[in-house]
Design a protein that fits this description.
The chain has 108 residues and is mainly β. It has one domain: Alpha-Beta Plaits (2-Layer Sandwich). The chain is built from 2 helices and 6 strands; from the N terminus they run E-E-H-E-E-H-E-E. The strands form 3 sheets. A two-stranded antiparallel ribbon has the order 1-6. A two-stranded antiparallel sheet has the order 2-5. Strands 3-4 form a two-stranded antiparallel sheet. 12% of the residues are buried. The chain binds iron/sulfur cluster (SF4) (2 copies). The site of one iron/sulfur cluster (SF4) has 12 residues, from helix 2.
């Protein structure tokens, strides 16, 4: 008799096109509308500039990341609200949650 192990949930793959979304703070729609708080904005900076203030309205100073991919429910709200079609989500096929049982069954 063999049992298949329960596999962990595979998270959606979220891709943000950073050539389209260059100033996320000017829009913020995905950040505001995502019910799971998946997105995060972080500074882009050289090590020696880490204490310098950076204007969030300037192109390329901050970029959008999908940091909590594990929370994503693939509701597609972020895709719907993005005005420039910068977000793509791929949902991987999930493994079955039920253990597979092969061979002799109990009671037989
Ligand atoms: S699909 Fe839904 S849960 Fe996932 S990142 Fe977009 S808005 Fe958030
Ligand atoms: S909704 Fe689109 S354009 Fe707006 S911040 Fe998010 S990815 Fe960028």
């Amino acid at each position: 008799m063999t049992y298949g192990l329960r596999m962990g949930r595979k998270f959606p793959k979220i891709t943000v096109d950073l050539e389209k979304c260059t100033v996320p703070f000017l829009c913020k729609r995905c950040l505001q509308e995502c019910p799971m708080g998946v997105f995060h904005v972080t500074r882009v900076m050289a090590k020696e500039e880490r204490l310098k203030e950076m204007d969030p309205r300037i192109d390329g100073n901050y970029i959008l990341y999908a940091t909590r991919r594990d929370k994503c429910t693939a509701c597609n709200i972020c895709i719907d609200v993005c005005p420039i079609d910068a977000i793509k989500i791929e949902v991987p096929k999930q493994e079955s949650a039920k253990p597979k049982v092969e061979g002799e069954q109990w009671g037989q």
